[in-house]
Amino acid sequence: MRFLDIVFSSIGLLTLSPLLILIYLLGLFDTGHPLFFQKRIGIKQKTFVIVKFRTMKLNTLSSGTHLVDPSKITFLGNFLRKTKLDELPQLWNVLVGSMSLVGPRPCLLNQKRLIIERKKRGVFRAKPGITGLSQVLDITMKNPKLLAKTDSKMLKKMTFTNYLYYILIT
Fold first, then answer.
1. Which long-range contacts (CB under 8 A, 24 or more apart) does 87-91 make?
2. Which of 124, 118, 123, 128 shows the shortest CA–CA distance to 98?
3. Looking at residue 22, what DSSP letter applies?
4. What does the DSSP assignment read for 56-123?
5. At what angle are helices 144-156 and 112-120 packed, to 10 degrees?
6. Percent of residues, the chain, with pLDDT higher than 70
7. SS3 content of the chain, % helix, strand, coil (to 5)
8. For residue 129, which phi and psi values (nearest 5 degrees)?
9. Does residue 129 have a pLDDT over 80?
10. How far apart are the first and last CA of the chain?
């Protein structure tokens, strides 16, 4: 699937570059720092830096989306989150190989319960992804056990067809 990750992320970055530039420029007006860089846990539990469009005010503490005070989300950030456009810069992570288009969403370093559940189920044997079964089923990090089970199920049944399906359905 690495070949497809390279092809699709390259195409995505090229074709979406006008939109990426527009969001970046809007982000300059919104927070002054449109890109957000954060350490996440990837394959083999190694940390990597994920890149996203900033959706929260500067100096907001790093935590899971479901734990964020809604007043910390900017006007532009609210739109980006609803439309999932804040995730587009992760195509860069896919292109450089720290992520795949399809896989379990990378967790934060402080999501201990999720890390334990994923470790038990071997989820860290795969690269994290932008989308996957959990995203399609709208399972969030609010329920770490169910999320880890769903990620494990997806990885065990991963096929070329499923890979394409998760991308298309997203």
1. 87/52, 87/130, 88/12, 88/16, 88/19, 88/20, 88/23, 88/53, 89/20, 89/35, 89/51, 89/52, 89/53, 90/50, 90/51, 90/52, 90/130, 91/9, 91/12, 91/13, 91/16, 91/130
2. 128
3. H
4. B-TTPPP--GGGS-GGGB-HHHHHHHHHTGGGTTHHHHHHHTS-EEESPPPEETT-HHHHHHHHHTTG
5. 30
6. 95
7. 55, 15, 30
8. -130, 170
9. yes
10. 17
Token pair, residue 154, equals: 């997806």
Residue 104 tokens, joined: 């379990």
The model's confidence at residue 71, banded by pLDDT at 50, 70 and 90, is confident
Q: What is the pLDDT of residues 78-92, one digit of tens each?
A: 999 999 999 999 999
Q: Summarize the confidence of residues 130-147 as an average pLDDT.
A: 93
Tell me which residue has tokens 């092809």: 7
Backbone angles phi, psi at 41, to 5 degrees: -100, 130
Burial (CB < 10 A; 0-12, 13-18, 19+), residue 88, is buried
Residue at 170: amino acid letter: T
Q: How far apart are CA 100 and CA 23, in angstroms?
A: 23
pTM given for the model: 0.90
The predicted pLDDT at position 25 comes to: 97
